[in-house]
Design a protein that fits this description.
By secondary structure, the protein is α+β, with helices and mostly antiparallel strands. The chain is built from 10 helices and 10 strands. A hairpin with a 3-residue loop joins strand 1 and strand 2. It is elongated and about 70 Å long.
């Protein structure tokens, strides 16, 4: 039998999904819910915590609890990298028209706010192992954030690494003011003679850290993140980019399609 807090959460969820409570509407207060359901304060707060974790409501300090404006969903498929590679040799005007974020969200460039920050670092044990280079090798670390103009929280937390010695083959790749780069990382690598042949992604789900929850606008109460590490491998089998991406579980859909070979008759 469902607990009382689950029944309250379900009733409010149904009102939101039915459109009885619209985005921006105030949710009934704790006192009203306690009176309606004949329950205690902790039970009501537990019910509201469930809906906050699901991203359906948000608490505004000193004001009350409101139905949250739905966030843009990101549909990330394994076909995005072939789509990106196909654009590498397209004209600049085509590459500038849309990027991977627009592809995944269905938004247009004017809908988005983008930022990038570059830093030169030395490879840690982990990164040295990923690139198969000595510890301390000079790397270009690139942090990216993109969010919708209707939401301050970014779609993900993305950090990409390039081997500095390779990147400096095109000085433009060392300048963060050239971002967003038309055509993305695959086009950047193409400018220094590198063709990406394989993308490998390793994904784990876990609770967010406090910093991740704050930056992504997540509740620490039940919302998971996907921790993704991406390896871009060139035609010689060399790892040419490593990227670590934190994806919020409340608005990310991961879609992977596997094409199976036919049986030989």
């Amino acid at each position: 039998m469902p607990a009382k807090y689950e029944l309250i959460a379900d009733a409010l969820r149904q009102r939101i999904e039915a459109g009885e409570l619209h985005p921006g509407d105030r949710v009934p207060g704790e006192a009203a819910l306690m009176e309606q359901y004949k329950v205690s304060t902790p039970t009501v707060r537990q019910a509201l915590a469930v809906l906050r974790a699901e991203g359906l409501i948000e608490a505004k300090h000193g004001v009350g609890t409101y139905v949250r404006v739905p966030r843009v969903k990101v549909r990330r498929t394994d076909e995005r990298y072939q789509w990106e590679k196909n654009r590498v040799r397209e004209p600049d005007s085509v590459r500038r028209s849309t990027g991977a974020t627009e592809h995944d969200t269905g938004l247009s460039m004017p809908d988005l706010v983008f930022s990038a920050r570059y830093e030169v670092i030395n490879a840690t044990d982990d990164l040295a192992d990923a690139f198969a280079v000595p510890v301390g090798t000079k790397l270009l670390q690139r942090d990216y954030r993109t969010h919708s103009r209707t939401d301050d929280a970014p779609f993900n937390l993305s950090r990409s690494y390039l081997i500095y010695e390779l990147a400096e083959g095109n000085p433009d790749l060392l300048d963060e003011t050239n971002e967003p780069w038309p055509g993305g990382t695959q086009h950047q690598l193409c400018t220094i003679g590198i063709e990406v042949a394989t993308i490998t992604e390793e994904i784990e789900a876990r609770p967010p850290t406090a910093r991740e929850a704050e930056e992504l606008g997540l509740s620490l109460e039940g919302t998971a993140v996907f921790e993704l590490r991406k390896y871009s491998i060139d035609t010689t089998g060399r790892v040419v980019e490593v990227a670590d991406v934190i994806l919020p579980g409340d608005r990310t859909q991961l879609v992977y399609t596997t094409h199976l070979a036919k049986w030989v008759k």
